[in-house]
């Protein structure tokens, strides 16, 4: 009976959220939709500007996709290096007396992942200037928070059998950490890093919108100029790149299991 009442309350709250969401959206712009313009956009997207894929200028789709991959890779690389120790420190079961260090580390990780990469990119463009380095810093900062949280959760879910076995024969904190705790999560950590590399590449594709390098800058310029053929070849390049990374990452994750 109590469960049914709770379910009804949950359904009622969800219904209110859905209704409020629909009401809060302004639909007045629907009347100003230009169907001729929409047809022109779709018609242009069906005619990719193939000559822009690679022209040797360094500003073509191929070169910028390589740059975008580099931003995603370096951002994930730096984030992984920092997120591993911070994530381990924030695991609550690592500390016997509640763990002030764990709480502080978790707060830091929460703050870092509270903002999307685009916000960090805007900030870092102002700090270090426009370019790929700002994109790398933006990706790294956000992913430290994301990866650190996931690493901490995995550390908290380990099997304590090996830890207790080592402690029973006199092993110290560092010995149990490096020989009983971390070996249990290494493969999962690697899988999470691969997964976040995929996410980083997708994010890096948009950071150019705010001047943080990558394929996003020519994309926004092409959209503003209504050069739909160029928009089309850029989007195709991004789609193919993401598909290749997804396939490669899936194969890598299978090997890590």
How is this structure best described in words?
- The longest helix is centred in the C-terminal third of the chain and has 35 residues, at 173-207.
- By secondary structure, the protein is mostly helical.
- It is globular and about 75 Å long.
- The model has no long low-confidence stretch (mean pLDDT 88).
- The chain is 75% helix and 0% strand.
- The protein has helices spanning 2-24, 35-45, 61-89, 100-112, 117-128, 132-156, 161-168, 173-207, 216-224, 228-256.
- The protein starts with a helix and ends with a helix.
Tag the structure with descriptive keywords.
257 residues, mainly alpha
What is the radius of gyration?
A: 24 Å
> What percentage of residues falls in helices of 4 or more residues?
over 70%
Instruction: Please report the total strand number as a whole number.
Output: 0
Give the biggest sheet: none
Give the count of helical stretches. 10
Terminus-to-terminus distance: 43 Å
What's the helix-strand series? HHHHHHHHHH
Derived from helix and strand composition plus strand pairing, the structural class reads: mainly alpha
Oligomer: single chain
Strand content: under 5%
* Poorly predicted parts: none
The coarse overall form would be globular
Mean pLDDT: 88
């Amino acid at each position: 009976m109590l469960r049914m009442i709770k379910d009804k309350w949950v359904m009622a709250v969800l219904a209110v959220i859905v209704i409020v969401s629909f009401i809060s959206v302004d639909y007045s712009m629907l009347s100003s939709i230009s169907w001729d313009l929409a047809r022109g956009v779709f018609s242009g997207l069906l005619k990719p500007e193939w000559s822009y894929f690679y022209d040797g200028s360094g500003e073509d789709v191929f070169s910028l996709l390589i740059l975008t991959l580099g931003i995603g890779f370096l951002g994930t690389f730096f984030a992984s290096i920092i997120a591993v120790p911070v994530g381990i420190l924030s695991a609550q079961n690592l500390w016997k007396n509640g763990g002030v260090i764990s709480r502080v580390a978790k707060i830091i990780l929460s703050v870092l992942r509270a903002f999307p990469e685009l916000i960090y990119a805007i900030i870092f463009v102002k700090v270090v200037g426009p370019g790929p380095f700002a994109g790398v810093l933006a990706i790294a900062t956000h992913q430290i928070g994301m990866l650190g949280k996931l690493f901490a959760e995995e550390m908290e879910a380990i099997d304590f059998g090996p830890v207790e076995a080592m402690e029973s024969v006199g092993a110290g904190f560092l010995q149990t950490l490096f020989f009983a705790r971390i070996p249990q999560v290494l493969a999962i950590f690697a899988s999470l890093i691969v997964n976040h590399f995929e996410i980083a590449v997708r994010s890096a594709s948009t950071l150019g919108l705010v001047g943080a390098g990558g394929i996003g800058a020519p994309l926004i310029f092409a959209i503003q100029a209504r050069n739909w053929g160029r928009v089309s070849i850029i989007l195709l390049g991004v789609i193919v790149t993401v598909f290749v990374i997804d396939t490669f990452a899936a194969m890598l994750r299978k090997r890590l299991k």
